[in-house]
Write a structure and sequence with these properties.
alpha/beta, Rossmann fold, single chain, 2 domains, seven-stranded mixed β-sheet
């Protein structure tokens, strides 16, 4: 007898998350084992509140548009943490309600798209269903711009368990393009705005920050890539002094400097808020790491009696700041074609796993070693990735701790899709009038 399925999303959205929903939906629609595919509005909250929409009834045109629709607004997301067994009554109530809703709608497959916390939720729901005697196949689908779901770097240059997560390739492309454009801005205004500080998403892992280097793999820009893994965990002043020293080194070499840091950089208290999982929500903090660094470089903490700052920069001018917010993870205009394709395929693969009777697994992307870039799709037990966090490889942090290595560039470049656009590069010097000497403008004397 055909069964019904529920697909839901959790955590922060990505540019390509809806294409994973589409992959699940279209694969299940072609199977005689599935009658109806429901979307749980606002993640697991939609299950608890019996707020389901019939995805199978949507027009083909609307389903196709999921590929071009960013973020998770189509069916919604949430940051709701299911209680553990240790919490007693709340645990019993939530899980009993999930069983009740699934039984009422004859649900036999549950797909949860998200990060490591979401994989924990999928694992708990599957285990709870077994305890209650409900035949339910729980399958996870990786999603996170942080790229922190999966195992460690292997000797062949690929990552174990899940090489990379859907959503990361697009945010990496966003940052490669952002730094390309920022370089033009910094070139244009550096006689007054010597330093541009840019802040990337990432609570404590540097994959997004590292993608700034993809804008300049030949290292021609005056660019510092400051990874959270390369900083002191307990001495923010040492981190500020280290970055300042390197900014001034680059200023001496190039006359200007760009710095990309992570939102979770330990540069002082930013006044963070936390979600129900205990994760820092830096987009809602009182200030940002980028602003702390900008103020330190500009010397706003040592104003004189007339209110004038005493800059720490080794050149005239100021540091400015650029802090893009959630646009980093939703900008469909900069989506990676590779990321879009893989998000669809991993959703499709998750559906195939469920149709084959698999449960308690997460669909994964596995990279084949060597070139050209190729992937295949696999699976990993949910308990292996639930609440586990991948770390940025130490061997990909350059010795000076202000850059990443070519190893990272080789790994990440295929994920951002098409080549980045070329910008004009005019000759450095034009012919000058003979007989004219050098002149220092009056205001610069």
């Amino acid at each position: 007898m055909p069964m019904n399925a529920v697909v839901a999303q959790s955590g922060g959205p990505t540019t390509v998350i809806n294409n994973s929903v589409r992959g699940v939906l279209e694969k299940l629609a072609s199977s005689s084992k599935i009658r109806t595919v429901y979307g749980a509005r606002m993640g697991i909250l939609g299950v608890l509140q019996n707020d389901l929409i019939d995805l199978s009834a949507q027009s083909p045109e609307q389903v196709a548009l999921l590929a071009e629709t960013p973020s998770a607004g189509a069916i919604g997301s949430c940051r709701y943490k299911l209680a553990s067994k240790e919490t007693g009554e709340t645990y019993q109530e939530d899980y009993a309600r999930i069983i009740e809703v699934f039984k009422a709608h004859e649900v036999g497959c549950f797909f949860y798209i998200g990060g490591n916390d979401s994989m924990d939720t999928a694992h708990r729901v599957g285990a709870m269903a077994r305890d209650a005697g409900l035949e339910l196949q729980a399958v996870g689908i990786a999603k996170t711009v942080d790229n922190d779901v999966g195992g460690p770097l292997q000797e062949d240059g690929t990552f174990a368990l899940c090489d990379h997560n859907p959503g990361y390739g697009s945010v990496a492309r966003y940052w490669a393009l952002n730094v390309l454009e920022a370089n033009e801005e910094n070139k244009a205004s550096h006689t007054s705005d010597r330093v541009l500080v840019m802040q990337a998403m990432g609570r404590k892992i540097g994959f997004i920050t590292a993608s700034a280097r993809l804008a300049d793999p030949n290292r021609e820009m005056p660019l510092l890539v400051i990874m959270p893994e390369a900083q002191s965990k307990d001495d923010p002043q040492a981190n500020l002094d280290f970055i300042t020293e390197n900014v001034n080194r680059v200023l001496g070499e190039h006359g200007r400097c760009m710095v990309v840091i992570t939102e979770g950089a330990n540069l002082g208290d930013v006044g963070i808020l936390r979600d129900s999982f205990g994760h820092a929500q830096f987009s809602a903090s009182q200030t940002t790491a980028a602003h702390l660094l900008m103020n330190h470089l500009n010397g706003t903490d040592r104003r004189d009696s007339k209110g004038r700052a005493h800059s720490r920069l080794a050149a005239s001018g100021i540091a400015r700041v650029d802090v893009p917010g959630t646009i980093q993870r939703r900008d469909i205009s900069r989506a990676s074609s590779v990321d879009l394709e893989e998000a669809y395929r991993v959703g499709e693969h998750a559906a195939a796993l469920a149709l084959d009777g698999k449960s308690g697994v997460m669909a994964t992307i596995l990279r084949r070693p060597g070139e050209p870039y190729q992937v295949e799709y696999g699976e990993v037990p949910l308990e292996v990735v639930a609440n586990a966090e991948r770390r940025f490889p130490a061997e990909w942090i350059a010795p000076g701790k202000t850059d990443v290595t070519d190893g990272f560039v080789r790994w990440a470049m295929p994920l951002i899709g098409e080549p980045l656009p070329p910008f004009a590069r005019l000759a450095e010097k034009a012919a000058s009038e003979a007989g004219l000497g050098e002149y220092v403008p009056q205001g610069l004397r």
